[in-house]
Specification:
Number of strands: 10
CATH topology: Trna Endonuclease, Chain: A, domain 1
Number of helices: 3
Distance between the termini: 41 Å
Strand order of the largest sheet: 1-2-3-6-9
Radius of gyration: 17 Å
Protein name: DUF4365 domain-containing protein
Pfam families: DUF4365
């Protein structure tokens, strides 16, 4: 595997762990059309026969994942900056404008030193360093840049264990 493929796989597993822990499922589509995963929320109800039934609530959020190392972001006191491919940025804008289900960017940031990415001991499995989420500001317009656009992600947009529940409430109050 290439380093880029390893980074991608680590970010995929990270998202899967957090989603599962929060009771969500993530589905990977068959085609690469700017969406890496679709997040679905499940719930339970008691059917007419008195049996518990588990199903999806009919809402979903599409996720676009990017994985990088800390030397590829600019860390500030209130935000981080990242150079995102224009096509990925414009996909985020188009989704906002089209009124369809939300598309959210998740930026997974690994340490520069590859030996620090994953660690296991008798008590813990650690995957370093962190991940952030991003959606363009309301009213943002598509970029005409040829390759990248610098986005600014607030430090508060860091992923934690409650991220998917909070994200779902944001888009489906």
């Amino acid at each position: 595997m290439t380093i880029e493929q390893i980074k991608e796989q680590l970010s995929n597993r990270f998202i899967g762990i957090i989603a599962s822990f929060a009771g969500f499922s993530i589905d990977k589509g068959d085609l690469d059309l700017g969406v890496d995963f679709t997040l679905k929320k499940s719930y339970s109800y008691i059917n007419s026969l008195g049996k518990v039934r588990h199903t999806y609530d009919g809402t979903y959020i599409d996720l676009q994942l990017k994985s990088t190392t800390e030397n590829s972001v600019i860390v500030g006191s209130t935000s981080i900056k990242y150079d995102l491919e224009v096509k990925a940025y414009n996909d985020l804008i188009e989704r906002q404008l089209s009124g369809n289900a939300p598309l959210v960017l998740i930026l997974f940031v690994l340490p520069y030193d590859q030996t620090l990415w994953v660690d296991i001991d008798n008590n813990e499995i650690r995957l370093r360093k962190n991940a952030f989420w991003y959606t363009p500001a309301v009213g943002a317009t598509p970029s005409l840049n040829s390759s990248t656009i610098r986005i600014e992600i607030p430090n508060d947009n860091i992923l934690g264990l409650d991220f998917f529940n909070n994200l779902h409430k944001k888009f489906y109050p």
